[in-house]
Design goal:
Number of domains: 1
Structural class: mainly alpha
Order of helices and strands: HHHHHH
Strand content: under 5%
Helix content: over 70%
Shape: elongated
Length: 129
């Protein structure tokens, strides 16, 4: 079978690009609007110590988004798949964090959805065709 190309013509390419941009933009939000970013994340904070942690997580997300986006732009399909597999620990940890807090924690479903989306992307990227 012929190898599926990983170019701007591939829906898989664009799904990976959207993931990279989304992670990057959420990092920007957490860095510059940490109170709002923390609420969206599912872990609202009000004090300066908590806001420092949110900004730190924002820098993490900016770096992850840039790394993933760079490998997508370089059209390194297998490397993108491996990187996404490694990154799955982040939304798992995020979901766990949200679930450990008092309150409804519906945001944990968003983090869990991210895990499922990333697993599906990684499988599609790493499968042999």
């Amino acid at each position: 079978m012929r190898q599926v190309e990983f170019t701007h013509r591939s829906p898989l390419y664009w799904l990976c690009a959207v993931l990279a941009v989304g992670i990057f933009l959420f990092g920007i939000l957490a860095l510059f609007q940490p109170v709002f970013g923390a609420e969206l994340f599912g872990s609202p904070v009000k004090d300066a110590d908590g806001l420092r942690w949110v900004r730190s997580a924002g820098v993490r997300d900016i770096a992850l988004g840039l790394m993933l986006g760079t490998v997508v732009l370089l059209r390194q399909k297998r490397t993108v798949g491996i990187l996404i597999l490694f990154m799955i620990g982040v939304p798992i940890s995020d979901a766990w964090t949200v679930l450990s807090l008092p309150g409804p924690g519906y945001q944990a479903l968003l983090h869990a959805g991210s895990v499922l989306f990333m697993v599906a992307l990684a499988v599609l990227l790493l499968r042999r065709r």
